[in-house]
UniProtKB/TrEMBL annotation, chain A:
One of its GO terms (molecular function) is ciliary neurotrophic factor receptor binding. InterPro entries: 4_helix_cytokine-like_core (IPR009079), Ciliary_neurotrophic_fac_CNTF (IPR000151), Leukemia_IF/oncostatin (IPR001581), PRF/CT (IPR010681). It comes from Gopherus evgoodei (Goodes thornscrub tortoise). SMART domains: LIF_OSM. One of its GO terms (biological process) is neuron development. The keyword Secreted applies. It holds the Pfam family CNTF. This is Cardiotrophin 1. Its main location: secreted. Belongs to the IL-6 superfamily. One of its GO terms (cellular component) is extracellular space. The gene is CTF1. It comes from the Eukaryota. The lineage of its organism: Eukaryota, Metazoa, Chordata, Craniata, Vertebrata. Keywords: Cytokine, Secreted. The keyword Kinase does not apply.
Automatic annotation (TrEMBL), chain B:
This is Cytokine receptor-like factor 1. Belongs to the type I cytokine receptor family. Type 3 subfamily. One of its GO terms (molecular function) is cytokine activity. Its main location: secreted. InterPro entries: FN3_dom (IPR003961), FN3_sf (IPR036116), Growth/epo_recpt_lig-bind (IPR015152), Ig-like_dom_sf (IPR036179), Ig-like_fold (IPR013783), IgC2-like_lig-bd (IPR010457), Type-I_Cytokine_Rcpt (IPR050379). Gene3D superfamilies: Immunoglobulins (2.60.40.10). One of its GO terms (biological process) is cell surface receptor signaling pathway via STAT. The keyword Mitochondrion does not apply. Keywords: Disulfide bond, Glycoprotein, Immunoglobulin domain, Phosphoprotein, Receptor, Repeat, Secreted, Signal. GO terms for cellular component: CRLF-CLCF1 complex; external side of plasma membrane; receptor complex. PROSITE patterns: FN3.
């Protein structure tokens, strides 16, 4: 699918965008989340394929682990839907400013663990790019709606390189959360789209 | 799919959000220390070796060694191979290990009784690399050098193997490393510049993986002895007057080697349109033209030429054959010429004719610029194009029915000649509009 990562030029100034322009931006962003939903599923499947069992088995139960800086969508689904648009957007923006760095780290680790898995590398890079695009779009929408944005993400996860197994595991968590956030963002933008129809 | 709740033992740290009235928090699931530790971590082993690994659980988890079990790549390991080392440590003995199932390492995992994963370690089991073999190199127009090689024996070492191509001038000390890999297949490398002529190079390949390094034999060569070039340019194939069994092929020598005092050798290959068997003409020498004889009348032929830059700068050695030139087509004159009368014999021919006409018009519209470029060649070029698109076999076959081989060829040509005339008329008419 064509990558429609679409960064806005003027970001934070609360905008003089017309209702029409906001609605267009929301529609565009919604379509981007459709792409992300599809790609994130593919990425997760491609990722586990290369790590071997038990990662690739359908009933894989990963332990929750320390992935510093990664916001998990811990708000249960019913509460998520009960949030205001602004709060939802805020959560999404926070996730999507953090995900690109995390996906980049996974790419680095997979370059060592699976040096020949060029398709996986390509998908990880594309995923980071798409997340950056979505973050930019969200920033634009939030600016237009007067919703304050989240703080910028803390600098990258330093620390010693993890062992191979931990690298496989944290990569799995990142890909899984990328997918979960894609589903949530798709849902949220869908709701927004009905409220700001074209 | 909702996010799964973390294991009950996880401690959660709260972080407040700056949004007012927001009772939402991000939960970072953080173990004060890892739940368990496996030793050794990420070992590398030779196929067939044995390993004893130990899993030590964090005492905070209140788990006992007896509560643990092991899996390798998802498969549970037999309890007979376990041994309790102390209250919180369980070991497992693995024997006669097979090569790693995936290059990222086999997953040896320590679980608690309920199945949850406590720790893991990746095993890298394989063989040290074999010496790479069969190094062959070629230089395109003496400007660069590409080499390829094969991994030793079956090449399956189960571990990721890195290949490095190195080269140095024979009588100067410095080793150079090739940088551009996989330009001509998986085991290849390309050296783009700074190559000396008239002086031998030593070239070798080093293979390395987690278990060791293997170096190939050194190959010695002079760039001038492995030169290849571009295919000959401007290949044209034309009729020899009215002779129905001959075609004349002309070309020019590849321009890149103009100044290098070489004797080119050429080879021609040709085939009939609907055959895949090429006939090779070997003894062309270094002329830039050749006459093909003994051909079938009224038949379309495809012709290709290639070049070998033999004896560069007076060297006695042959170079390496270039790629074949793009196929050029021409047709031999038909035996009995019916002057321009289109006479489809049956309804069957009629529909085929109509179909071919449409195709030809479509093609002529795209590829012919002005009627001055039209000639018999246009029809021949169209046939080359058709051949390339693999459409010919399906379309022509149906029309050329029971008539014998030579006759079938004649039908094609006859319809082609009419088509060409019609096509020309079409283009002229369209241009005048």
């Amino acid at each position: 699918p064509v990558d429609r990562a679409n960064l806005l030029s003027s970001a934070s100034s609360s905008s003089s965008l017309s209702q029409q322009e906001v609605a267009t931006k929301i529609k565009q962003t919604h379509r981007l989340t459709v792409l992300l939903k599809h790609c994130s599923e593919q990425l997760l499947a491609e990722y586990v394929r290369h790590q071997g069992e038990p990662f690739s088995s359908p009933d894989f139960q990963p332990p929750a682990m320390a992935v510093p800086g990664l916001p998990s969508p811990s708000v249960p689904p019913e509460a998520w839907l009960a949030l205001s648009d602004g709060k939802r957007l805020w959560h999404l923006a926070a996730a999507y400013t953090t995900l690109p760095g995390l996906l980049g780290s996974v790419l680095q680790q997979q370059a060592e663990l699976n040096p020949l898995a060029s398709e996986l590398h390509r998908q990880l890079e594309a995923a980071a790019r798409q997340c950056r695009g979505l973050a930019g779009n969200l920033e634009g929408i939030m600016g237009a709606l007067g919703v304050p944005g989240p703080p910028p993400p803390s600098s990258s996860l330093g620390g010693p390189p993890p062992s191979a197994f931990l690298a496989k595991l944290s990569g799995y968590h990142v890909c899984r959360l990328h997918r979960d956030w894609a589903m949530r963002s798709h849902e949220a933008l869908g709701l927004l789209r009905t409220k700001y129809p074209l | 799919m909702p996010y799964q709740n973390p294991a009950p033992q996880a401690a959660a740290t709260k972080r407040s959000s700056p949004v007012r009235d927001c009772s939402l928090i991000f939960l970072f699931f953080f173990f004060a220390a890892d739940p368990a530790v496996i030793s050794p971590q990420d070992p590398t082993l030779v196929i067939g070796s044995s390993l004893i690994a130990a899993c030590s659980v964090n005492s905070d988890l209140h788990l006992k060694a007896e509560d643990l079990y092991w899996t390798l790549n998802g498969r549970r390991l037999p309890p007979e191979s376990y041994k309790v080392l102390n209250g919180t440590t369980l070991s497992v003995a693995l024997a006669n290990l097979n090569g790693s199932r995936q290059q990222s390492g086999d997953n040896l995992v320590c679980h608690s009784r309920d199945g949850s994963i406590l720790a893991g370690s990746c095993l890298y089991v394989g063989l040290p690399p074999e010496k790479p073999v069969n190094i062959t190199c070629w230089s395109k127009n003496m400007k660069d050098l590409t080499c390829k090689w094969a991994p030793g024996t079956e090449g399956e070492t189960y571990l990721h193997t890195n290949y490095t191509l190195k080269y140095k001038l024979r009588w100067y000390g410095r080793d150079n490393t090739c940088q551009e890999y996989r330009t001509a297949g998986q085991y290849s490398c390309h050296i783009p510049k700074d190559l000396a002529l008239f002086t031998p190079y030593e070239i070798w390949v080093e293979a390395s993986n987690r278990l060791g390094v293997a170096v190939s034999e050194v190959v010695m060569l002079d760039i001038l002895d492995v030169v290849t070039t571009d295919p000959p340019a401007d290949v044209t194939v034309s009729r020899v007057g009215d002779l129905e069994d001959q075609l004349s092929v002309r070309w020019s020598s590849p321009p890149a080697l103009k100044d290098f005092l070489f004797q080119a050798k050429y080879q021609i290959q040709y085939r009939v349109e609907d055959s895949s068997e090429w006939k090779v003409v070997d003894d062309v020498g270094n002329q830039t033209s050749c006459r093909l004889a003994g051909l079938r009348p009224g038949t379309v032929y495809f012709v290709q030429v290639r070049c070998n830059p033999f004896g560069i700068y007076g060297s006695k050695k042959a170079g390496i054959w270039s790629d074949w030139s793009n196929p050029t087509a021409a047709s031999t004159p038909r035996s009995d010429r019916l002057p321009g009368v289109c006479d489809p014999k049956s309804g069957e021919h009629n529909t085929t004719l109509r179909r071919e006409l449409k195709q030809f018009f479509g093609w002529v519209k795209k590829h012919a610029y002005g009627c001055s470029n039209l000639s018999i060649k246009l029809y021949d070029q169209w046939r080359v194009w058709l051949q390339k698109s693999h459409k010919t076999r399906n379309q022509v076959g149906e029309g050329c029915s029971a008539a014998g081989r030579a006759g079938a060829g004649g039908h094609i040509w006859l319809r082609g000649y009419c088509l060409w005339k019609l096509g020309c008329a079409f283009v002229l008419g369209a241009a005048r509009r």
